[in-house]
C-alpha cells in the first residue's frame, strides 16, 4: 500500500474539506433544531456539489460521474464524515448497486441519478428480518410478465426524499441440503405507483434530519423489466456492489472522530480546574492519546480495505474489519470526549452530545458489530471446514 497521496487525491481532500466547512457545517444547528433538511437546502447542496464535481463522484466518468477509485472515495468520505450525516448525504454518491442497471433502466434510473435528477433508497430490512435478511417476508409473486408485491419494509433511510426504491423481495423457494431457502429478487420501484405507500418511521436519536421510513406494498404490481440484475439473484447483485457501503460508514466515522477529538483537545487545553488546565491531568491527556491512536488505526484499516478494493482484491472480511473497528472506535472517542467536557458535554449548547448520539447508529446499520464479527470469524474458520 502506497502511503503517499497523489496530487489529485490531495486536491480532492482540500476541495471536500472546503466544501464541508463552507456549504454544510453552517447548517448543522438548523438541521439539528428542525430535525429536517429543507428541500431548498438539499437542492442547493446538490447544485453546489455538482458545480465542484463532488456529486456522484463514485460513478464511472463515462456515465457522467466523478470516476474516483475506492481509495479516493474513502478519502472523500473521511472529510464528509466531519459534518452532520443528513447534510453530507445530499452530496450524493448513488448506490453502486445501480451499476447493475441494464437496457432502459440506464436511462430511467442510473443516468438521472448520476445527474442529480433522481434519488434512490435501498429497501431490504423488515420488522421481522434485520440481520437475517434472507428470512424477509415481502413476497414478489410472478403473474405473467408482472410481479405482485406484498409486504412491509422498515428503517428505510431517505425514502421520504427518494424518488424510487431498490427493493428486495422473496421471489421463490429453493430446496437445499440445509432445508428450504428463499430466493431473493431486487426491483426498481418508483414512488407514487399504486399500492405502494411510504410512511415516516419513528424518530431516531442518531442523525437528526435524516429520516427512515416504512414502505408498505399491498398487491403492488411491478413489470418484470423493473428487475435489477436477474430474477432470484438479488443477493448476488447486493454482494457484488454493496460491500463498499460498509467502507463508507467506516470512513465517515474517522472524520467525525477527528472533529470530536480536536474539540476535546481544545477544551482540555483551556478548561481550568485545580489551578491548571485539565489537559495537564493524565486522566484527561491519556484519553486524548488513546483517541488519536485509535483514529489512526481505524484510518489504516479503512484505507487498506479501500486500496484492496481499488485493486479488485478486497474480501468481505476487509470491509467488515474496517467497519467494526471504525464504528466501535467512534463510540469510544465520542464517549471519552464527552467525559473530557464534563457536564457541559451533555448540554445542547455544544455539539458533543450530538456526536455522541450520532455515533450509536454506526454500530447497528449496514450490519451490526456482531454481524461484522461473524463475517470475520467465518473467514478464519472456513478453511477448516470439511
Ligand atoms: C436509522 C436506521 C437506518 C437504516 N437504514 C436502512 C436502509 O436504508 N435500508 C435497509 O434495508 N435497512 C436499513 N436499516 C436497517 C439496519 O441495517 C438494521 O437495523 C440492522 O441490519 C440490524 O437489524 P435489526 O435492527 O433488525 O436488529 P436484529 O437483527 O434484530 O439484531 C438485534 C441484535 O441481535 C444481534 N444478532 C442478530 N443476529 C445475530 C447473529 N447471527 N450473531 C450474533 N448476534 C446477532 C444483533 O447484532 C443485534 O445486536 C437502518 C437502521 C437504522 C437504525
H/E order of the elements? HHHHHHEEEEEEEEHHEEHHHH
CATH class descriptor name of the largest domain: Mainly Alpha
Overall pLDDT metric? 97
Extended strand count = 10
**Which small molecules are bound?**
flavin-adenine dinucleotide
Q: Give me the secondary-structure category.
A: alpha+beta
CATH architect. name of the largest domain: Up-down Bundle
Quick one: overall form? Answer: globular
What is the CATH superfamily classification of the largest domain? Answer: Butyryl-CoA Dehydrogenase, subunit A, domain 3
Helix content range: 40-55%
Give start-end ranges of low-pLDDT stretches: none
The largest beta-sheet arranges its strands as: 1-4-5-8
Largest sheet: 4 strands, mixed
Tell me the count of domains: 3
Taken as a percent bin, the fraction of beta residues is 15-25%
The CA-CA distance between the termini, in Å, is: 34 Å
What does this structure look like?
- The protein folds into three domains: 7-95, Acyl-CoA dehydrogenase/oxidase, N-terminal domain (Butyryl-Coa Dehydrogenase, subunit A, domain 1, Orthogonal Bundle); 120-233, Butyryl-CoA Dehydrogenase, subunit A, domain 2 (Beta Barrel), CATH 2.40.110; 242-384, Butyryl-CoA Dehydrogenase, subunit A, domain 3.
- 47% of the residues lie in helices and 18% in strands.
- Helix 4 runs parallel beside helix 8 (243-270), helix 8 packs parallel to helix 10 and helix 10 runs antiparallel to helix 12 (369-381).
- Strand 9 (272-273) and strand 10 (276-277) form a beta hairpin.
- The protein is built from twelve helices and ten strands.
- With 386 residues, the chain is α+β, with helices and mostly antiparallel strands.
- The protein has helices spanning 7-24, 28-34, 39-52, 70-80, 85-88, 104-115, 234-241, 243-270, 282-310, 316-341, 352-362, 369-381; strands at residues 120-123, 139-143, 146-157, 164-176, 179-190, 196-200, 212-223, 227-228, 272-273, 276-277.
- Strands 1-4-5-8 form a four-stranded mixed beta sheet. The chain has a four-stranded antiparallel beta sheet with strand order 2-3-7-6, with no helix packed on it. The protein has a two-stranded antiparallel ribbon with strand order 9-10.
- Bound molecules: flavin-adenine dinucleotide.
- Flavin-adenine dinucleotide binds next to strand 1, strand 3 and helix 12.
- Flavin-adenine dinucleotide binds at residues 121-125, 130-131, 155-157, 204, 212, 361, 364-368, 370-371, 374.
